[in-house]
Request: fold
Amino acid sequence: MIDLKEIPDTQIERLRYIEFSLKFLGMFSRSDLIEKFGIGTAAASRDIAKYKELAPLNFDHSRNSRNFALNENWQSIFEFESSEVLNQLTGRTVQSTNRAYISNDILDMIDSPSIEIIAPISRAIFNKKAVEVDYFSKSSGLSTKVIIPHAFIYNGTRWHLRGFDRKKERFADFVISRLQSSRNIEADVFEHETQTQDDQWNRIVQLEIEPHPDFPTPTALHSEFNMEEGVLKKKVRASSVGYYLQKLYVDCAKEVTRGEHYFRLRLKNRLALYGVENLWLAPNFDGFDE
Reply:
């Protein structure tokens, strides 16, 4: 890696942002730097020149475009953690400064996808392109797929990629850590493969969750989940409903499940689940009455 010790920390942060944008979005612009860091045009130009000095092959600039585009022959200057990258890409955190303001203890997530696999996917999402991946599934083992990705999903335990699977001709979720490789490809993307046509993603389901009848101290749950009148109301994308109910371990059976003391919560409005596709994830879900 290049020695960056002589560069001020404030400029390091901006150079790191340039590389982040190149690697995970495929491009950056001078106006991006100006807007994000509140600097002037001259300062932004100096940052770009400095990055070009450190990594002369990393980007190209067309006179007909305001964007600086990733060069295929590029080489990283900075190191990124997958959790940091995915959180920043999805707006869950601000730019990392590696500084803790108060004492804390956070368990690192076990699911830690490869940065080199994430980067082509995030570029494809940002630029609305296709990717080719080698994916390992429980049912069919290792296979090569062409996917039109449109979103990342974090279910509280691991990261998924949401996109259109051309092999199965449907939208689906893919566990990112099961991807063995990913690569950007030149392929036309059709309207029916885009996010606007993903019905499960675009449908919003309002869940109503209440304390399980067998839970001994329901008022504790009222406080823990900030319930109003004893009910937690949560709007969730249909594509994430199963994950949400599974994470909170909500009893979703037609009749109240008795004798299982680990249930703390119960789904109050089961009919809201009609049409949701991933109900196999919902604890004890046993269909609807005919």
Q: What stands out?
A: Helices lie at 9-25, 30-37, 41-54, 82-89, 115-127, 199-202, 218-224, 241-248. The domain at 115-195 is CATH 2.30.30 (SH3 type barrels.). The chain has a mean pLDDT of 91. The first helix runs from residue 9 to 25.
